[in-house]
C-alpha cells in the first residue's frame, strides 16, 4: 500500500494579529484558513505581513471552528522556499 502525501495549499495572508499570535490565509480555492504562530516554520511569524504568499498544510480533521493550518511556509523574495520541505 502506497502512502499518499497531501499537496500543500497556496494562499496569501489576509489578517494578522501579532499580539495574539495568529493569522488568516485566503487560499487559492477561496477558503479562509486560521493559523497559529507556532505553525509557521523557522519561527518566521514576526516577519510575516498581510499580503505575503504562503504554502500551508491544512490539519485533518478540521477544527470545529473551521479549517486550521498545521504548517505554514512563507514563500517569495523574502522567504526562500527551497530551505524547507513539507
Straight-line N-to-C gap: 21 Å
What is the helix content?
under 10%
So how many helices? 0
Q: Count every beta strand, where a strand is a DSSP E run of 2 or more residues.
A: 5
Point out poorly predicted stretches. Answer: 79-86
Task: Note the beta-strand portion.
Answer: 35-45%
Q: For the residues shown, what is the average pLDDT? A: 85
Structure overview:
- This protein is an all-beta fold.
- 0% of the residues lie in helices and 37% in strands.
- It has a five-stranded antiparallel β-sheet, with no helix packed on it.
- A hairpin with a 4-residue loop joins strand 1 and strand 2.
Chain-wise SSE layout:
Blueprint: E1 9-17, E2 22-27, E3 32-36, E4 53-58, E5 69-74
Antiparallel strand pairs: 1-2, 1-4, 2-3, 4-5
Summarize the structure.
With 86 residues, this protein is mostly beta strands. It contains no helices and 5 strands.
Which structural traits does this protein have?
single chain; about 90 residues; mainly beta; five-stranded antiparallel β-sheet; about 0% helix; globular
Amino acid at each position: 500500500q502506497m502512502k499518499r502525501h497531501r499537496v500543500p495549499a497556496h494562499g496569501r495572508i489576509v489578517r494578522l494579529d501579532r499580539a495574539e499570535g495568529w493569522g488568516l490565509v485566503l487560499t487559492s480555492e477561496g477558503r479562509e484558513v486560521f493559523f497559529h504562530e507556532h505553525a509557521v516554520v523557522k519561527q518566521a511569524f514576526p516577519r510575516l505581513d498581510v499580503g505575503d504568499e504562503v504554502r500551508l498544510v491544512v490539519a485533518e480533521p478540521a477544527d470545529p471552528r473551521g479549517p486550521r493550518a498545521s504548517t505554514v511556509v512563507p514563500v517569495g523574495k523574502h522567504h526562500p522556499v527551497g530551505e524547507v520541505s513539507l
